[in-house]
């Protein structure tokens, strides 16, 4: 069996005619930069997310950087960010001369909470970046309440949770990334909505912010050769937009396929002492960009080695807290350890999960893990 963490090729085989037709149209029209495919994708994503403005860009890291640039923050301002996340979330904060303030996460959802946020706020805090890790939303209603009280901007990093639904207390459902002041995402090929190269997007319901985001992503210009602000050059390639136009139609189906796999894993592992399946928030659907177990008793690395020997790929997202990375030492502020982050870095392991998983592959993985514990 050739088990893969993500099977992009088999997914492509099912939609290849549509994808190749879209790519051919881009090539035939030679509209390679900001062509009709990009504009169509932005419009369709606006409709899907329920937001007023989507600005496609070159990648998810650029999306985060452009979002921060649009807020008018000043050198040294603090931006609160989880310590248990991919480096890009904090990297762009430091790159812009701002201060990433790294905080702990909830032990169940692995996400930032309103309580953790409120404890971390200082007079220098100007923004917060909740990361919707592994596929489900942070508790955005409570986070937005705290942000409003303290006049903070909220940038949602939804690179792993595009398509997830967050439910407010009154029953209103809103897509991830459409709740904060700005949402950002990545279209890296392995993402739930993945291109066949790099890509990203920024979105907002604030029309003025939308204009600012668009200008910054396009050299600071709203009209060609008229530059109102200092910007950058970050564009979604038209060929990638053509791919995404096709895949967006199937995004909810892709999420359902991942959820089906996760449900089978859950049932198989629920009574195994020593591993904890992913927690489900009652306020957010889980689109399972990753299916991540917690492995107790110091056995995580041994389990990974065992699965590798049996032809089962796994990944550890993430093995080192941000504040233990050499690059972020200047921002650690004497932080010795954040207990939940430290525990997760030692215990988490992600299993194969994707839209094309075969029943026999799933049964094989479950069988090997079950035998390991029995």
Please describe the structure with a list of short key phrases separated by commas or semicolons.
374 residues; 12 helices; 14 strands; alpha/beta; three-stranded antiparallel beta sheet; seven-stranded mixed beta sheet; globular
> Can you list the strand order of the major beta sheet?
1-9-8-5-4-2-3
* DSSP summary, beta strand count: 14
Beta-strand fraction estimate: 5-15%
| Helix and strand sequence | HHEHEHEHEHEEEEEHEEHHEEHHEH
Count of DSSP-assigned helices: 12
Major beta-sheet overview? 7 strands, mixed
**Regions with little confidence, pLDDT below 50 for 5+ residues:** none
Description:
- The chain has 374 residues and is an alpha/beta fold.
- It is built from 12 helices and 14 strands.
- The strands form 4 sheets. A 7-stranded mixed sheet has the order 1-9-8-5-4-2-3, sandwiched between helices. The protein has a 3-stranded antiparallel sheet with strand order 12-13-14.
- Helix 1 crosses helix 8 (238-248), helix 3 (60-69) packs parallel to helix 4 and helix 5 (114-120) runs parallel beside helix 6 (140-149).
- The radius of gyration is 21 Å and the shape is globular.
- The model has no long low-confidence stretch (mean pLDDT 97).
Topology overview:
Blueprint: H1 8-29, H2 36-49, E1 53-57, H3 60-69, E2 78-82, H4 87-95, E3 99-103, H5 114-120, E4 125-128, H6 140-149, E5 153-157, E6 165-167, E7 173-175, E8 182-186, E9 200-204, H7 207-217, E10 221-223, E11 226-227, H8 238-248, H9 251-269, E12 275-276, E13 291-295, H10 300-309, H11 339-347, E14 348-351, H12 359-373
Parallel strand pairs: 2-3, 2-4, 4-5, 5-8
Antiparallel strand pairs: 1-9, 6-7, 8-9, 10-11, 12-13, 13-14
Helix pairs in contact: 1-8, 2-8, 3-4, 5-6
């Amino acid at each position: 069996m050739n088990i893969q963490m993500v099977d992009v090729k088999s997914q492509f085989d099912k939609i290849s005619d549509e994808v190749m037709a879209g790519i051919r149209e881009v090539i035939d029209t030679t509209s390679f930069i900001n062509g009709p495919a990009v504009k169509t994708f932005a419009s369709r994503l606006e409709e899907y997310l329920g937001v007023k403005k989507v600005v496609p860009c070159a990648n998810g890291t650029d999306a985060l950087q452009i979002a921060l640039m649009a807020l008018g923050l000043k050198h040294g301002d603090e931006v609160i960010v989880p310590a248990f996340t991919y480096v890009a979330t904090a990297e762009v904060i430091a790159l812009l001369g701002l201060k990433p303030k790294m905080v702990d996460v909830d032990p169940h959802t692995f996400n930032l909470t309103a309580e953790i946020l409120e404890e971390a706020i200082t007079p220098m805090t100007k923004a917060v970046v909740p990361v919707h890790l592994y596929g489900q939303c942070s508790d955005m209603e409570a986070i937005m309440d705290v942000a409003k009280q303290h006049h903070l901007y909220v940038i949602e990093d939804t690179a792993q949770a595009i398509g997830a639904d967050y439910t407010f207390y009154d029953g209103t459902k809103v897509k991830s990334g459409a709740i904060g002041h700005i949402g950002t995402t990545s279209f890296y090929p392995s993402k739930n909505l993945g291109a066949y190269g790099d890509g990203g997007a920024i979105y907002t319901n604030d029309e003025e912010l939308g204009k600012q985001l668009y200008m910054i992503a396009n050299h600071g210009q709203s009209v060609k050769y008229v530059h109102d602000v200092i910007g950058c050059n970050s564009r979604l390639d038209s060929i990638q937009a053509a791919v995404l136009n096709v895949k967006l139609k199937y995004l909810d189906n892709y999420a359902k396929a991942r959820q089906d796999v996760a449900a089978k894993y859950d049932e198989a592992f629920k009574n195994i002492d020593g591993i904890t399946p992913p927690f489900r928030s009652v306020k957010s659907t889980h689109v399972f960009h990753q299916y991540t177990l917690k492995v107790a008793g110091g056995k995580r690395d041994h389990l990974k080695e065992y699965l590798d020997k049996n032809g089962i790929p796994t990944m550890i997202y993430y093995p080192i807290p941000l504040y233990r990375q050499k690059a972020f030492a200047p921002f650690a502020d004497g932080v010795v350890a954040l207990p939940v982050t430290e525990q997760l870095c030692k215990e988490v392991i992600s299993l194969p999960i994707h839209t094309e998983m075969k029943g026999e592959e799933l049964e094989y993985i479950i069988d090997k893990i079950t035998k390991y514990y029995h």
